[in-house]
Amino acid sequence: MMRWRRGEVYYNMDKTVENKTGNMVSYWEIFKCFSKIGAFTLGGGYAMIPIIQREVVEKKKWIGLQDFMDVLAIAQSAPGVMAVNISIFLGYKLRGNKGSIVATLGSCLPSFIIILLIAIFFAGFRDNPIVVKIFKGIRPVVVALIAVPVVDMVKESNLNVYRALLAVATAVAIVFLRVSPIYILLVVGVFFFMGRYFGDKKKKEQSSSNHIDKEGGER
Amino acid sequence: MIYLQLFWVFFIIGLFTFGGGYAMLSLIQSEVVIKHAWITAEKFTDIVAISQMTPGPVGINSATYVGYTVTGNVFGSLLATFAVVLPSFILVLTICHLYVKFKESNLFASLMKTLRPIVIGMIAAAAGILITKENFFDWTSWVLFAGAFAACQWLKTNPIWVIITGGVIGLIIY
């Protein structure tokens, strides 16, 4: 209960900071937010998702959950590290090109410094008994944190039977068949465009009203 | 010369890895361990383990580590890290411009709507893949898992605090 209340006060403080600087989010605030995210992303890019969701979607309200899911789909489809791609995208959304540079720097800097220190000073880091104990406790927690956004996203998405099946099939294909998510995104994307193309053709054959012609022209 | 090579290798790694950090590992291994022999396979395994124990994506971490080991200085590690981020930075920024332009279009909006269930499945799978014997070695791991899930889902505790608490509990009970 205490922690929750403390969280609320922090939230309010951030709000006043935002009001002082006007509607624009300052570069410093972007940097601060993303370096915080970068510092606590243990266990790969997906572990970043719950933390970004909490900080950027729920606390700062910089982006809605639906838009955030769009960003995730795009970040996964683009090459490179997913967590960095998310930072680039969100930074751009907040303050354009410069914003994306600041967000990327922020999310990379903590891990850069930590790895550099380990590379220079602690060669035996991974065998250190204290480190081993701490990580035995952290690993299952990180798995739980990754699972949490799934619940919110299911609630937000109004899934019908087909869309729910698609979500389940995706998870099964990735976990058990080890299919890369990028291929699933690509294949469904291609089917989507094919469906649109042939769907439009059918419509055109049935009636040649102006409205449908317009839609076809847009494509 | 070594700097140029380092930049080029990590630029290529950044450009050709789709699908996140772990997909990156095999490419990094073939370039850095096998082709250039900058580090040994054993050292590479160490880097992967350290990446999992430290914050940040595996791709970035290994670039930082390899950059330092190969050149023996901070500039080398900075260069490798910069090189691995650069391709996705250019590409994603281009996509951003297009996204802002096409966001309002019907076609794009319904494409994104179609892809959303996949995003959900993708994240669920990321959690599923991590349920391994190493991460969940006895019942205490499952208690920690359930506790963390409940704290985040219902008490809305900040994930950062949940991670720190998990680490402290691990230090005490193991």
Task: Give the arrangement of secondary structure elements.
The complex is a heterodimer of chains A (219) and B (174).
Chain A: H1 2-20, H2 27-39, H3 48-59, H4 65-77, H5 82-120, H6 129-156, H7 161-177, H8 181-206, H9 210-218
Helix pairs in contact in A: 2-3, 2-5, 3-6, 4-5
Chain B: H1 2-16, H2 21-35, H3 41-53, H4 58-71, H5 74-102, H6 106-129, H7 139-153, H8 159-173
In short:
The complex is a heterodimer of chains A (219) and B (174). Chain A has 219 residues and is mainly alpha-helical.
What can you see in these coordinates?
The complex is a heterodimer of chains A (219) and B (174). By secondary structure, chain A is mainly α. Chain A folds into two domains: 2-158, no CATH class; 160-219, no CATH class. Chain A is 80% helix and 0% strand. Chain A contains nine helices and no strands. Chain A starts with a helix and ends with a helix. Chain B is an all-alpha fold and 174 residues long. Chain B folds into two domains: 2-97, no CATH class; 131-173, no CATH class. Chain B is 80% helix and 0% strand. Chain B has eight helices and no strands. In chain B, helix 1 packs antiparallel against helix 2, helix 1 runs parallel beside helix 5 and helix 2 (21-35) packs parallel to helix 4. The longest helix of chain B is centred in the middle third of the chain and has 29 residues, at 74-102. Chain B is flat and about 55 Å long. Chains A and B meet through helix 1, helix 2, helix 3, helix 4 and helix 5 of A and helix 1, helix 2, helix 3, helix 4 and helix 5 of B.
